[in-house]
């Protein structure tokens, strides 16, 4: 019972910071609305003079772009304002408290990430419902397609969790890495198809991204949703996503053991 209570408290750490700051929630709603409107307008404008580009119709492109904006809310909470990022904990020396709590640091991190994703899911589902009702995004072609998309999205978020964990674990080995973190996050968004579908990039870029886990986080689920990846090919993509989950889980577990030996208290 105590473990469940500790887990619940850890999971609600960052969401509570948002819920207790109404202006921040208003800002999130405004920014999400502006992003959806601008992205939908941009892609409709790009397709004004053409019917199909890179194998995508206008409706598919708009749906993909808007869904990418909504999916970004799943892990886009403002941890920095609450001084709850690993980078800040390392800088101020408060990371040591992760190793003094009843929960192991890796479990605390996982529970906190779960709470963030559930909170972000509420935003994403609300935005999806509004966009679907307004005709901004198209519904999936079939119930089977929707089911495969949900499974792929779940695996994609699992991969994303380990990718973000790997970036945070980097903080244990580099004391000043703000710029490196920004570069890596930009690369993750670019290679996962957040900014634009990967099919618009050169062939060498697509080939390179195929050897990295980033496109498994978002590009694959959204490609299934818009019909770019057929149901007959979805099984192979799901297997690749699951393989990345296993590989990254083993890697981050190994890094956690090494990181524990490097914990120091500095700064405040």
UniProtKB/TrEMBL annotation:
InterPro entries: ABC-2_transporter-like. Keywords: Membrane, Transmembrane, Transmembrane helix. Pfam families: ABC2_membrane_6 (PF06182). The chain crosses the membrane at residues 118-137, 143-167, 179-198, 238-256. It comes from the Bacteria. The keyword Transmembrane helix applies. The keyword Transmembrane applies. This is ABC-2 family transporter protein. It comes from Streptomyces shaanxiensis.
């Amino acid at each position: 019972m105590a473990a469940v209570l500790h887990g619940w408290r850890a999971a609600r750490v960052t969401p509570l910071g948002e819920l207790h700051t109404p202006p921040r929630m208003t800002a999130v709603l405004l920014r999400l609305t502006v992003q959806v409107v601008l992205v939908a307008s941009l892609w409709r404008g790009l397709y004004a003079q053409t019917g199909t580009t890179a194998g995508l119709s206008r409706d598919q492109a708009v749906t993909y772009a808007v869904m990418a904006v909504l999916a970004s809310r799943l892990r886009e909470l403002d941890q920095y304002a609450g001084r709850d990022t690993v980078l800040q904990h390392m800088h101020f020396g408060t990371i040591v408290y992760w190793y003094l709590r009843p929960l192991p640091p890796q479990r605390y991190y996982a529970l906190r990430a779960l709470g963030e994703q559930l909170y972000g899911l509420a935003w994403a589902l609300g935005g999806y419902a509004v966009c679907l009702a307004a005709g901004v995004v198209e519904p999936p072609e079939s119930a089977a397609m929707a089911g495969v998309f949900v499974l792929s999205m779940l695996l994609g978020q699992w991969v994303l969790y380990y990718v973000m964990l790997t970036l945070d674990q980097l903080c244990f080995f580099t004391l000043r890495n703000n710029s490196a973190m920004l570069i890596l996050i930009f690369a993750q968004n670019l290679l996962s198809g957040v900014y634009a579908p990967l099919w618009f990039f050169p062939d060498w870029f697509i080939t390179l991204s195929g050897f990295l886990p980033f496109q498994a986080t978002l590009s694959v689920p959204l490609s299934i949703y818009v019909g770019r990846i057929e149901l007959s090919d979805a099984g192979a993509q799901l297997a690749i996503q699951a393989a990345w989950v296993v590989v990254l889980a083993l890697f981050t577990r190994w890094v956690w053991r090494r990181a524990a030996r490097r914990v120091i208290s500095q700064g405040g």
